[in-house]
Amino acid sequence: MEGKHVIPCTAAVKYKAHDFWTSGLVDAVDLNFLCPIRYVYDYLPFPIAWLMPQPLSLSNILERDEDDMAASPSYRLERVSSVYLHTTMTRLPLHTGLKDFRQNKYWRANEDSTRELLQLFAQDRKCGDVLLSDNLSLSDLAEKQLKNEVIDTYSRFSVYMFPEADEERIKLLAQSVILIFTFDDTWESAAPETIVHLREYFVSRLRGSIPPSALDTPLERRISDIRTRLLACDDEEGNGGADVLETLISFCSHAEPPREGFSSVRDYLDYRWEDIANTFISSCAKFSICSSVDRTKPELGRLLRHIGDHISIVNDTASFDKEKRHFDAGKANSMINLVHVIATLERAETQTAKSMAYAWQLCTENAILEELTALKRRNGLSREEWSFVDACLMAASGNLLASVVMSRYGGEKTRVA
Asked: Phi and psi of 2, rounded to 5°?
């Protein structure tokens, strides 16, 4: 949907508006599992008629020939933890050629785990001492998130990005995502010495280098518990828990953006690939399906790079308006965003820069399609590796869907229910 829909905000009309956007999203048998959608944000509301996405579905690629059907991830995964989302049957403004979207059934457990960890951040004395550039503390930031339905903020990402995780794994993924976002928000709006302090606060416990103590705060105990439970999942099946820990720790010490800025879109995306925690995302995808696949296998490198670029581009395009407001108001120290980079390099207006970002997204989707086709032709991946590819594509489509149906980027003006 390219047009911008203006919906009145009375309660009765909001209910009808919700139905307008989401009718037909799931099969009737799955209605009890559907996570309610209360926000719809069209971050590209202006028509871009000259940009047409081409359909991109892994199942279509793998099942094009009958002889390849046995290799399809749909035959490898039981999919007991997710429901299929018929997004093409709705009016949701999903600007993409990606066709496969799923939702985790355990979204309530995801929400509860998110709320629990945010409450621990809000109550933690040490987090109260971490001041951000807008004079709010890290505890204040967590408290602010708790004033909203948490499923409509950070919590949406893991529900859509990791749909095949079982209940225990989705709880751990939800809390790992909170740690990523907490550090990311602090990175963008805190003093350098604060970042160092926070890094040590998180990382020492994620590494297990500090033994448990009776003096630990509830938050410190929870972070240690997250480590223990991630590794316990590896004892049962797969080895993705260790990967999640390793990439989470690595993200906490990733490089600052270059002071001189970026010389090109490619230069920026190479930095953003780490800054948006793409290795962490692929680790979470692996963990969600109980996999032991080697994420660093050379045959997967090009595809994972393209998928990571896609996640970066979509996130930046969706979040640009919010980030620019915060930057202009002095609530952020820097503007790390593709739309901003394009506008700066090309001296373009915002709408033009967004269109160019979207064009880059569609080029990336085409690159993903070409790489998937090449991988199938070379027949170089195992069934487990194809399942991992499927999980990573779910992370990409889930990132896009979450960006549209949560309040984080569009705010209250996008509420429909």
From this structure: -100, -20
The span from the CA of 80 to the CA of 113, in Å, is 21
pTM of the model: 0.90
Cα–Cα distance, 140 to 312 (Å, whole number): 27
Residue 7: count of CB within 10 angstroms of its CB: 17
Instruction: Give Cβ neighbours of residue 304 (< 8 Å, ≥ 6 apart).
Output: 278, 282, 295, 392
Segment-wise mean pLDDT, segments of 10 residues, the chain, 417 residues: 39 52 91 95 90 91 58 54 95 96 97 96 85 77 87 93 98 95 70 70 86 88 95 97 96 82 95 93 98 96 98 97 89 87 96 96 98 93 94 98 95 92
d(CA 167, CA 158): 12
Tokens of 265: 């879109």
Per-residue pLDDT, 147: 87
Using CA atoms, how far residue 397 sits from 50, 157, 307, 365, 404, in Å, is: 22, 10, 10, 11, 11
| Beta-bridge partners for 132 | 190
Residue-level pLDDT at 17: 53
| pLDDT score of 272 | 94
Residue 149 CA, chain-centre distance (Å), reads 18
Asked if 202 contacts 126 with a C-beta cutoff of 8 angstroms, the reply is: no
From 173, 187, 392, select the one nearest 279 (Cα to Cα).
392
Give which of 276, 279, 258 is closest to 267, Cα–Cα.
258
- What is the Cβ-side half-sphere exposure of residue 331, based on CA atoms within 13 angstroms? 11
Q: What is the Cα–Cα distance from 324 to 272, expressed in whole angstroms? A: 17
Q: Name the pairing type of β-strands 101-104 and 82-85.
A: antiparallel
d(CA 219, CA 119): 9
- Retrieve residue 35's tokens: 């996570």
Residue 38 has a pLDDT of 94
**Type of residue found at 381:** L
CA distance 154 to 408: 7
